[in-house]
Automatic annotation (TrEMBL):
InterPro entries per record: Hist_DNA-bd, IHF-like_DNA-bd_dom_sf
Keyword list, A-Z: DNA condensation, DNA-binding
Pfam families noted in UniProt: Bac_DNA_binding
GO annotation terms (biological process): chromosome condensation
UniProt key word Transcription regulation: no
Gene Ontology MF terms in the entry: DNA binding; structural constituent of chromatin
Protein name: DNA-binding protein HU
Length: 98
């Protein structure tokens, strides 16, 4: 079995996640979908404000500013100007990494 095939078996799609939430909470898939969508939109909004999101015992999302810099294009050897931007970094909690 190829690595990509093994990896795809480990990924839970949003649809599957919604089904698991609905089953876990004894609710409909529509209600679970609405709840998950609300969480995702809220997290995106908070990150857009350049604030961090901390979900205790699960995950912390930090927004960091990266200064503008130049990089070398490996194909041409020329330089590329990379603009300044905000990036999101995810850090799993210790309970997930153990």
């Amino acid at each position: 079995m190829k690595e990509s095939e093994r990896m795809s078996e480990k990924v839970v799609s949003k649809k599957e996640l919604v089904a698991r939430i609905a089953e876990n909470k004894g609710t409909t898939k529509i209600a679970a979908q609405e709840a998950l969508d609300a969480v995702i939109v809220t997290i995106k909004d908070v990150l857009a404000e350049h604030k961090s999101v901390s979900l205790k015992d699960f995950l912390r999302l930090n927004v960091e500013f990266k200064e503008a810099h130049t990089r070398v294009n490996n194909f041409t050897g020329g330089t590329i100007n990379v603009p300044a931007k905000y990036v999101v970094k995810a850090k799993p909690s210790k309970s997930l990494t153990n």
